[in-house]
């Protein structure tokens, strides 16, 4: 060790403690600067500082009246302070044998008065000092000494918080990596299962449209039901990811309630054992059409009824729906699923709704299942502001009932148009897809639409074909060798400068994937396994020939009025929007993901004025809903949906404004 200055006995441990805080050579910090100002004010001195002492120097984290960032350790007063356990106060350095001839007393900083408090870590190491210095002699009173000690403790508390934040940040990064690893696993598993499942369901749909005898039709129906059931299991696992991130959206579309209930009943009849009677009872006052999420109701019922049928070997399973309340706008329904099966112990009633949990440990081995169904059912019911309850006794059966409110609908169900009536003419489509089964399926489906199809095995082949031929549309698989769908789309948009419509087709269907597709420049997204009618509707949409989805029109009348004919002002406002709003959307999404309600509320509120200038009423409404929900301190699936819609809308508006 250097002998030019005193060295504490625990010097090695002291230096290790100092390095633990990662404070040396960091940028200025308001919290430390405020503490230094406070010391200067309390003691009435022109010089104050917070410093840390390493092997060879005294480094100033914050200082007033010094003007340098560090000095050699051997010329510092604080080299002695860190040797003490309490405050060092020198009222007059001219009378002090140790300091009276010091260069900073006889000249330099002209130190006449010095008070230094050691900055002591919770485990007892003096890593630095908090000091007050004056050019005249003085004596601190008891209140000033106590205040200095308190400020020193505050400085150490700030250091501890900083260290804890670094540790938390490291843990957060580990957690994020774990989530990414899980999502990656789910994505790959989803892709591997959905790819063959896409072919099974797709070819079965095509086969069902051919001439079949009754026996063949019965077999095809069974294959379709099996495919749909397998898809439900895959979707259960994927829904976990969406539920956890709060981005599983609840739809609000008109649907036929009676037809949905009968469809689920017919779908599950094949699971009924011979000794079990399976019945569906519908309230006579049940309306035909309501507004809500048909798919999620299907999912809830299939899970609950499927469980009852699985756990009931004799007796009956009854499904019933009753109208409870009706207002001018809404109708509330109570759905029952009752069985005479194995039942559930009273002590297990709450835990059956937990993830990966079943009534008994032996249940999975005896009856199968993932243990996810009831957890997802509960989440889905509560996402729709409903409630679910259980009544059950061991060996006597169970009754699950849930209550949901739906909006009234004036819509009348219309018969579906034949798929062949596409009204799009003879389109030429490029498919980028590496799976042979999916290629064959897509070729059959696209041919049935009356379109021509070229196929590329990977992104590079797709780019090559696109550079040689004229196409109306690209269907893009996301997971391909050589160049994946994202890389291929980025190349088409940025290198080829092509605006050809691109539809993503993927078996992943995970949280954030749709958003990522839009970000790289794709126009739409169809998850596999796809329904023919969904694909055709999406093709119509991206080609702007579907009357239901007109291209956005931006109303500049308010901006024109504000600018009073000043085109430079109008241009400046437009450029500000293009520059500012996407950044705000990004900040909004980040704040939403970490559930920072105050930040979300503030950002959404600030965005509204900009959106209103360009008369973007729908986007402004989304921002209003987001702000209102942030004010309640609770985000819902509707918030996630509105954040996503706002993001996509802003991308569209910015693109149009840039073209203008």
From TrEMBL:
It is an enzyme of class 2 (transferase). Residues 188-408 form the Histidine kinase domain. Gene3D superfamilies: 1.10.287.130, 3.30.450.40, 3.40.50.2300, Histidine kinase-like ATPase, C-terminal domain, HPT domain. Residues 566-660 form the HPt domain. Pfam families: HATPase_c, HisKA, Hpt, Response_reg. The modification Phosphohistidine is found at residue 605. It is a multi-pass membrane protein. GO terms for cellular component: plasma membrane. GO terms for molecular function: ATP binding; phosphorelay sensor kinase activity. The modification 4-aspartylphosphate is found at residue 477. It comes from the Bacteria. This is histidine kinase.
């Amino acid at each position: 060790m250097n002998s030019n200055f005193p060295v504490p006995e625990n010097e090695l441990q002291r230096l290790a403690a100092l390095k633990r805080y990662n404070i040396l050579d960091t940028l200025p910090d308001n919290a430390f600067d405020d503490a230094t100002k406070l010391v200067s004010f309390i003691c009435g001195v022109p010089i104050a500082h917070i410093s840390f002492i390493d092997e060879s120097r005294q480094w100033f984290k914050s200082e007033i009246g010094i003007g340098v960032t560090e000095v050699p350790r051997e010329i510092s007063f604080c080299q002695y302070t860190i040797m003490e356990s309490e405050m060092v106060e020198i009222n007059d350095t001219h009378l002090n044998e140790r300091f009276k001839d010091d260069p900073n007393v006889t000249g330099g900083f002209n130190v006449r008065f010095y008070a230094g408090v050691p900055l002591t870590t919770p485990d007892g190491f003096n890593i630095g000092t908090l000091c007050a210095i004056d050019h005249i002699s003085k004596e601190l009173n008891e209140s000033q000494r106590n205040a200095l000690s308190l400020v020193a403790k505050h400085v150490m508390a700030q250091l501890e918080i900083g260290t804890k934040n670094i540790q938390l940040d490291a843990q957060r990064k580990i957690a994020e990596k774990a989530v990414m690893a899980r999502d990656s696993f789910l994505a790959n598993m989803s892709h591997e299962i959905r790819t063959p499942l896409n072919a099974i369901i797709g070819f079965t749909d095509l086969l069902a449209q051919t001439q079949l005898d009754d026996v063949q039709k019965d077999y095809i129906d069974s294959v379709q039901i099996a495919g749909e059931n397998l898809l439900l299991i895959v979707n259960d696992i994927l829904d976990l990811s969406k539920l956890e991130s709060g981005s599983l959206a609840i739809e609000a579309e008109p649907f036929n309630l009676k037809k949905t209930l009968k469809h689920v009943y017919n779908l599950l009849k094949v699971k009924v054992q011979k000794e079990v009677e399976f019945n569906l009872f519908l309230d006579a006052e049940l309306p035909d059409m309501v507004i809500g999420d048909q798919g999620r109701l299907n999912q809830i019922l299939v899970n609950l009824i499927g469980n009852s049928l699985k756990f009931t070997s004799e007796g009956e399973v009854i499904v019933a729906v009753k109208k409870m309340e009706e207002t001018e706008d809404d109708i509330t329904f109570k759905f029952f699923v009752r069985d005479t099966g194995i039942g559930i112990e009273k002590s297990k009633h709450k835990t059956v709704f937990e993830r990966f949990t079943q009534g008994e440990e032996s249940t999975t081995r005896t009856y199968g299942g993932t243990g996810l169904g009831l957890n997802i059912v509960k989440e889905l019911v509560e996402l729709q502001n409903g409630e679910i309850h259980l009544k059950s006794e061991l060996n006597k059966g169970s009754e699950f009932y849930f209550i949901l409110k739906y909006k009234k609908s004036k819509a009348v169900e219309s018969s579906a148009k034949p798929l062949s009536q596409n009204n799009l003419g003879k389109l030429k489509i490029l498919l980028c897809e590496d799976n042979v089964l999916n290629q064959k399926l897509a070729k059959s489906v696209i041919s049935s639409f009356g379109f021509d199809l070229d196929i590329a095995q990977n992104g590079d082949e797709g780019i090559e074909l696109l550079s040689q031929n004229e196409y109306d549309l690209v269907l893009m698989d996301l997971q391909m060798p050589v160049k994946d769908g994202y890389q291929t789309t980025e190349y088409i948009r940025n290198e080829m400068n092509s605006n050809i419509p691109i539809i993503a087709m993927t078996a992943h269907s995970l949280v954030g994937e749709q958003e990522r597709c839009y970000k790289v420049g794709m126009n739409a997204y169809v998850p596999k396994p796809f329904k023919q009618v969904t694909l055709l509707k999406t093709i119509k949409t991206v080609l702007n020939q579907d009357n239901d989805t007109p291209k956005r029109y931006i109303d500049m009348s308010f901006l024109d009025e504000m600018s009073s004919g000043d085109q430079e002002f109008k241009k400046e406002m437009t450029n500000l929007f293009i520059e500012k709003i996407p950044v705000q959307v990004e900040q909004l999404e980040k704040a939403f993901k970490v559930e920072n309600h105050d930040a979300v509320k503030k950002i959404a509120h600030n965005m509204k004025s900009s959106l209103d200038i360009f008369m973007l009423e729908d986007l402004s409404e989304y921002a209003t809903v987001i702000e209102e929900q942030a004010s309640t301190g609770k985000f819902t699936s509707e918030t996630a949906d509105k954040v996503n819609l706002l993001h996509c809308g802003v991308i569209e508006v910015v693109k149009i404004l840039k073209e203008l």
